[in-house]
Write a structure and sequence with these properties.
The structure is a single chain. By secondary structure, the protein is mainly alpha-helical. It folds into two domains: 48 residues; 87 residues, Topoisomerase I, domain 2, CATH 1.10.460. It is 60% helix and 4% strand. It contains six helices and two strands, in the order H-H-H-H-E-E-H-H. Strands 1-2 form a two-stranded antiparallel ribbon. Helix 2 packs across helix 5 and helix 3 crosses helix 4.
Length: 171
């Protein structure tokens, strides 16, 4: 049964409302990502100041291993996503991007979530079928993804990456 003009107008208004809400949410996300980048810059600046002060005796113990938040610093984004999702509840693309950056993934991307989205959608979803997107927009590992990360975790490259050993730029 075709829609009446009134029903069509009502549905079009609903679509416009949700598009406006989506745009507002995207702007809020962009603003929050900018704040996070500012915090990261401030943290890096303070850390550089601490590192520059190594010529004078420090009251802090010298670190003998890598910083605690650099688990994924020497790992590909794909491997890091698999590892993260294996050890967590389903997450949104933005949550995954923030968690990866918090755990040491370095990026020059203006919006790292776009990179994560590309890995999830292209490399993982279609090619490997390692993840699936849930109805709420969150991502979780499939059985194939769980098998993949179990295997990846046994490789010397993965163990070296998480232990802060030799850096492997891309796996």
């Amino acid at each position: 049964m075709p829609l009446t003009n009134e029903e069509r107008a009502s549905l079009e208004g609903t679509v416009r409302y949700f598009e406006a809400q989506r745009q507002q949410a995207q702007q809020q996300i962009s603003d929050l990502q900018a704040r996070v980048r500012d915090f990261n810059t401030s943290i890096a600046t303070v850390n550089k100041s601490l590192d520059a002060d190594t010529s004078t005796p420090s009251k802090l113990p010298l670190a003998t291993s890598r910083p605690p938040n650099s688990k994924y610093a020497n790992m590909s984004v794909r491997w890091a996503i698999l590892d993260l999702l294996n050890d967590s509840e389903p997450m949104t693309t933005a949550e995954i991007a923030e968690a990866l950056k918090a755990e040491g993934v370095q990026t020059r991307a203006a919006n790292f979530a776009n990179n994560v989205s590309a890995v999830l959608s292209t490399s993982m979803k279609e090619q490997h079928s390692d993840v699936r997107q849930l109805h709420d927009g969150k991502w979780e590992l499939t059985e194939s993804g769980r098998s993949a990360i179990e295997h990846i975790r046994t490789t010397p490259k993965f163990r070296a990456a998480v232990s802060g050993g030799r850096s492997y730029a891309r796996f």
